[in-house]
Design goal:
alpha+beta, N-terminal domain of TfIIb, 4-stranded antiparallel β-sheet, iron-sulfur, (2Fe-2S)-binding protein, VanA_C_cat, iron, oxidoreductase activity
């Protein structure tokens, strides 16, 4: 079977999660990846396999999800993000299911990086008026330019976590580990000297649709698992409403097509990094229009208080 004509080389060689390991039964499930149907099934001995038509793909189990790659020859597992905290014995792995989004996978990653929308989309949970200002933070590249990190991020949150008792100023570190994987390291209310980790692994189904797979690596050992999953799903479903109103569904990589502010530094760096990497899957193609016609034209009026 020929390799996908619409996928750029960087997108093609990535590893992607297709669903929670516990959801794959002997009946199997079918999902889309880069426009192609992938079938997952579990053998009687518990082994999970992935099939692309009649071609077997490597099924890799990592962080509670089943991952695969179209270039799966048993090597290249290092392209699955390495999360050192996942190996710590006192952390809980909490897989939060999968959510379908009618938007580019790149837009979903970008939204995850955005603190400015907290008071307006996640009101009285991750943010609240009048404390809407995003403090200046720094963006840097690491691992020889293969990752982007946003550091020294701080934001006041009325309920920073399900276990939080009252509001607090939360320290954030954002990590873009691959074009379709991003992580957040944030203040743990129970252990202020350490950070909880929330990862968002995004499965690009088509150019303009995706599934988001959120997973948490928590130091909170007491909260009910179902309550934790419900809390995280509620936050993401609030985001989905905004994401599905972006136009075009694919994400422009041309910085002139949308207005940016200082709070968008990580977003600007992400788009610039995608262009440098040569990622085009899920990115909208630039149109030859007047700059004046393009400003603010690719997304609806914003619901996060930052203008059009």
């Amino acid at each position: 079977m020929p390799l996908l004509p619409d996928a750029d080389p960087v997108t093609l060689r990535q590893w992607y999660p297709l669903g929670m390991e516990e959801d794959v039964t002997t009946d199997g499930i079918v999902t889309l990846l880069l426009g192609e149907e992938i079938a997952l099934s579990r053998a009687p001995d518990g082994t999970i396999r992935a099939m692309w038509g009649d071609r077997p793909l490597t099924a890799l189990l990592r962080y509670g999800y089943v991952w695969t790659s179209f270039l799966s020859d048993g090597t290249g597992h290092d392209l699955v993000p390495v999360i050192e905290e996942a190996m710590e014995d006192d952390r809980r792995l909490v897989c939060c299911g999968s959510v379908m989004v009618r938007a580019s996978a790149l837009r979903v990653v970008e939204n995850f990086l955005d603190m400015a929308h907290f008071p307006f989309v996640h009101t009285d949970i991750l943010g609240a008026e009048p404390r809407t200002e995003v403090e200046r933070y720094s963006v840097e590249t690491r691992k020889d330019g293969q990752e982007i990190w946003a550091v020294e991020c701080r934001f006041f949150q009325p309920q920073a976590a399900l276990s939080a008792d009252g509001g607090l100023m939360v320290d954030y570190i954002y990590r873009i580990a691959s074009p379709f994987s991003t992580l957040l390291y944030k203040t743990c209310p129970e252990q202020p000297g350490r950070k909880d980790v929330i990862a968002l692994f995004v499965q690009p189904m088509t150019q303009e649709t995706c599934r988001a797979h959120p997973v948490m690596f928590l130091l909170d050992g007491n909260s009910d698992r179902d309550a934790l999953v419900a809390f995280q799903q509620m936050i993401f479903l609030q985001d989905r409403t905004i994401l599905e109103n972006h136009r075009p569904e694919a994400m422009p990589l041309d910085s002139s097509s949308e207005i940016s502010t200082l709070s968008d530094r990580s977003s600007v760096a992400y788009r610039r990094w995608l262009r440098a990497q040569g990622v085009t899957f899920g990115a909208s193609r630039p149109e030859h229009r007047d700059r004046g016609d393009m400003i603010g034209a690719s997304r609806p009026a914003r619901h996060d208080g930052r203008g059009a």
